[in-house]
Sequence to fold (572 residues):
Amino acid sequence: MNKKLLLAAAGMFTVAGLFAQKTTAKKAAPKGKEIYTQYCLSCHQPDGDGVPNLNPPLINTSYVLGDKTKLITWVLKGTTEKVEIDGQTYSNNMPPQNFLTDEQLASVLTYIRSNFGNKASAISAADVKAVRATVK
Amino acid sequence: MMKNIKMKSNWLFIALLAITTTYARAGKDSTATSAPAAEVKADANNAGLKLPAGFGALKVADSVNGARHIVVTEKGDIYVKTSGTKNGGGIFVLHVGDNGKLQSKEGFGNYGGTGIAIKNGYLYASSNTEVFRYKLDADGKVADPENPEKIITGLLDRHQHESKSIALDNDGNIYVNIGAYSNSCQEKDRTNGSMGMKPCPILDSAAGIWQFKADKPNQTYGDGARYATGLRNVVGLDWNTTTNSLFVMQHGRDGLHDLFGQYFDAKQSAELPAECMYQVKKGDNAGWPYIYYDQIQQKKILAPEYGGDGKKTGGEDAIDPVVAFPGHLAPNGLLFYTGNMFPAKYKNGAFIAFHGSWNRAPEPQKGYLVAFVPFKDGKPSGKWEIFADDFAGGPEFISPAKAKHRPCGLAQGPDGSLYISDDKGGSIYRIVYKGK
Fold:
């Protein structure tokens, strides 16, 4: 009887834990999407597939799925150079997004790394903070 | 080294082919005096295009990657300038058979670019910094593809609006677009709320049309003249022989909502500003970056970077557009039709190849089409209309990355056919009129 109760309690605890986790993820996702829609979408497009020769796609590209530090630096600094990504060149300027907070950048970068068919690890506010400290 | 040898042997082959073709044509001409030349047939589905009644389309070729501007010789060969190079070729000459379909394709000119034109026995072609010309022989073929004359050099290429489109007049001049390396001359390009530089320093060396001599080698900024200014970026332009003047299509500015959301919502930003056709004369100013043209209010409006709010007007010294199209459709080709194949309505009118939008998101993208504007006595005589549509491939493809084809260049064939290039799918289309 005691054992059963314990199991049930443990089960409930796990469910509650999962639920809590799920709500946090759900909370983060809309925030990332919201930031993407406001600051990124008009160039990188609703599906993240970009504009050929101008604005790079965010789908399955080494810049998005690869090294976190490189991606964070890129978004903080922007570029005025022609960029070659995975064999294609893109010529439009990207303005620096350094006005976004660490939390906002973490949400939007996590969003792009886990949407549009991408499956890469999350980026935390601490990750952004650490990189921001090195970027002038 | 190997490539050079290969290129040379290719050209020997073309020379032989040219001689053979010439003989073949001579033979055919002498026996065909009583019968008209074989007419090309449209593809069964008009190559996937939607056209006005009586017109048909065929796909001449579907493998010319990055096909930008095009020109057709008197003999019906098509020269295509490509945005990049393939096997050392940045210009491709397409020979077509009597059915209008590609027979052979040869490349030369080892540089990517956009502009191409034929004038007074020369083929002109541009990279993003230079303009070259190649002497044509009596058959309209480039005689020495390895040794062009460099006519213009040292033009600015700062990775934004970098293509150098060209047009020639009848007085020995060539006109080159030098696009602004900026969206709206903000202190920080494309940055929310950043104000415009005043005066805009870009106007000295870009954001206009420069005029050079068509036959003088190695000219650069000091040798030419800034013919017209205040043009953000022009890709489609053509010399109009009725008015004896230059007409250009400007790509209007992006991001009114993104950059100044306090004055513009996303819907307004998708429609504004107009993509403008201008007739430009020497010394004209079209007003960029200080103003833009609002086709709904039909006014020149002060840009928000310079104190505008979407309502304040400006640009008293700037010219008005001849035609104003919806925003962001990206007009990449302009051609005044002087042929005799199409019905009278089309004579001397303007065809415009729209590349299709990207800066209308989150509103749906549009404009993957060729438009037409009727002209009479050098002025528009009616509203613009869609001439050829469905390049993208259907409603589900109407976005820049998904679109199957994007119109870019236009050319008129010796029989009056209209040719359209596509730099997304590499297709060359030919539009013919089949009668009622």
Q: What stands out?
A: The helical segments of chain A are 2-39, 41-44, 62-65, 68-77, 102-113, 125-132. The CA atoms of residues 127 and 133 of chain A lie 10 Å apart. Chain A has one domain: 28-132.
